Queue: 2 jobs
Job 1
Amino acid sequence: MRIVIAGASGLLGTSMSATFRDAGHDVITLVRREPASESEIRWDPAAGQLNPAALAGADAVVNLSGAGIGDRPWTRRRVDELFSSRVGATRTLTQAMHQLDVPPATFISQSGSGYYGDAGNTVLRESAPPAEGTLARICAEWEAAAATAPAGVRVVIPRTGVVFSRTGGALGRMLPLLRLGIGGPFGNGRQFWPWVTLPDVSAAFLFLLESQIRGPVNLCAPEDADVNAIVAALAAALHRPAVLRVPSFALRLVMRNLAEELLLSSQRMEPAVLQDAGFRWQHPALAQAAQWVAGKEGAGARG
């Protein structure tokens, strides 16, 4: 299979590209600089520029484009960038597809668990409606842009949860503190985080590429857990205490809306579509995932 990836240089894209290649697929990456090899093609998503020939002959396009949600404070300018870097890039891809006589058969376009907002203890399947809030609006517009792909293209929307990685990602700032024994839960810790390990994200995308699934897909592990349980599992795997709770008011004071929507909101997602389709997780249980993050389980996967 010939797969074109947008956003391949990030944490997910790097792991995913390796997984696809290991499975025997031909991977082409879209880059915003001068191409360094024949497997790279230049585009300018900010300007809406992509030569449709870049997608000609591709069996699938995987869209991971988007500025980092938690990388910087949510100023008005940054929020605009979060929207434009996702929606604009996605529309650039779908517009290029429309200019082809034979567009790629499959378009997998990333979304996030933020689509559901703060849902408390409600179990969220893929049919749950979008919420209010900045993250929910970003995800809804991102998904709407993906839906503008040409008729006949199989569009898949993975709503990815909190990705566990050994370096970087959602745990990038938490892990060093936990390793030192000075980390702890955020707020009361009873908010659910839909977690999933990096190898399982890449494996799930490969599964979706090779399946006939279409529409939204909750991408998280089958075992749900709140922040208290997640921090406790990671601390246990690292053999460190985790008692220094960060109070909600302090997070709101320092991070404002970013804290409310990214750290304190609760999404109890259920990966119903993946489960029904027979996907098998490498790390279905939180204890397994924590051992892998701590480097104490031979996962044999990149991350």
Job 2
Amino acid sequence: MRVAVGSENPVKVTATRRAFPDTVVEPIGVDSGVPEQPRGREETITGARNRAGAALTQTDADLGVGIEGGVAPVDAAAGHFLIMWAAVTDGDRWGVGAGPSLRLPDDVAERVAAGEELGPVMDDLLDTTGVAKREGAAGILTGHAIDRESALVHAVAGAAGPFLTDRY
């Protein structure tokens, strides 16, 4: 089986490889069709679906995978959260799955709510570059108990369910 992932981000590619072991995974840069910083579940899921569909149509892969990280306010938990969603398609069927949701610290949430992107905000606060291509905000905000890759593996595996089992 060949799987095309709609991103060249090494963390997203490795997460897809972990969710689809013994499978050829081909990264391809595609547009998500949503803002660089998706806001809310709907926009984040739409970005993941757009990436999966574009990855599939632009390759001769069997499945297309899209992964999108976003931010969303959660009223019941009184805060802004980092959210992660993935989509998988074979062109006819779709699967979607989510990774963990992590509450953003107030100083980060304020900047994100004001319109900044999470990755650059984290880079600025940590005085570094490329956090999104390494441990991600997930790693920083959990003291490295999880990292971005492991969080995204769960989203991709959840989205892949309809293609990995006959339970759907």
